[in-house]
């Protein structure tokens, strides 16, 4: 039995369509991350670049897995996405540690002693705040995306066993739905 029956209660999408939406959103976020970290020369930036490259590949594979109903790729996406999220968490913890050490040094010596010290102090505090807001949003999207994709995986698994949840079929635009056959209308 699938964890979720629909990916979004407001739009009524099934988990198959929701899985494609999740993949598209993650592809966009991965491309933004690649663009942001493409010119980074810091070890953390290079590590994040590697995480975004791996995740971009898995999100593209997710679209293929959903369209072609390849169950093992769906489960692989869930696992690799969790691994990439944990790796990003470790990198953000490292960046936070480095920035906190710089902030402490600025506070101990007085930020006004450095050229641009006050600006650097405020920029580091703002940057840390934004990193952890981003991390919170990333965690929420990871959990929800994994639930949607895993629910689609469970539907495909149950369907293979003969007990699956039927996918939504829009009524009225199918050629063989009652009322759409021209040869029956005249009888």
From TrEMBL:
<keyword id="KW-0812">Transmembrane</keyword>
<keyword id="KW-1133">Transmembrane helix</keyword>
<feature type="transmembrane region" description="Helical">
    <location>
        <begin position="74"/>
        <end position="95"/>
    </location>
</feature>
<feature type="transmembrane region" description="Helical">
    <location>
        <begin position="44"/>
        <end position="67"/>
    </location>
</feature>
<feature type="transmembrane region" description="Helical">
    <location>
        <begin position="132"/>
        <end position="153"/>
    </location>
</feature>
<keyword id="KW-0472">Membrane</keyword>
<protein>
    <submittedName>
        <fullName>Uncharacterized protein LOC109475708</fullName>
    </submittedName>
</protein>
<feature type="transmembrane region" description="Helical">
    <location>
        <begin position="20"/>
        <end position="38"/>
    </location>
</feature>
């Amino acid at each position: 039995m699938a964890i979720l029956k629909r990916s979004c209660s407001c739009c009524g999408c099934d988990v198959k369509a929701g899985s494609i939406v999740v993949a598209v959103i993650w592809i966009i976020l991965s491309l933004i991350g690649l663009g942001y970290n493409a010119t980074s020369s810091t070890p953390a930036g290079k590590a994040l670049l590697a995480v975004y490259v791996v995740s971009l590949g898995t999100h593209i594979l997710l679209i293929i897995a959903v369209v072609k109903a390849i169950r093992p790729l769906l489960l692989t996406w869930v696992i690799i996405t969790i691994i990439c999220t944990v790796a990003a968490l470790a990198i953000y913890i490292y960046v936070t540690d480095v920035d906190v050490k710089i902030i402490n040094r600025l506070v101990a010596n007085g930020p006004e002693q450095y050229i641009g010290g006050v600006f650097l102090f405020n920029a580091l505090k703002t940057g840390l705040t934004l990193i952890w807001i981003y991390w919170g949003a990333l965690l929420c999207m990871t959990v929800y995306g994994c639930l949607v994709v895993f629910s689609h995986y469970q539907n495909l698994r149950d369907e293979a066993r003969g007990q699956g949840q039927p996918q939504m079929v829009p009524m009225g635009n199918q050629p063989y739905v009652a009322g759409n056959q021209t040869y029956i209308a005249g009888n």
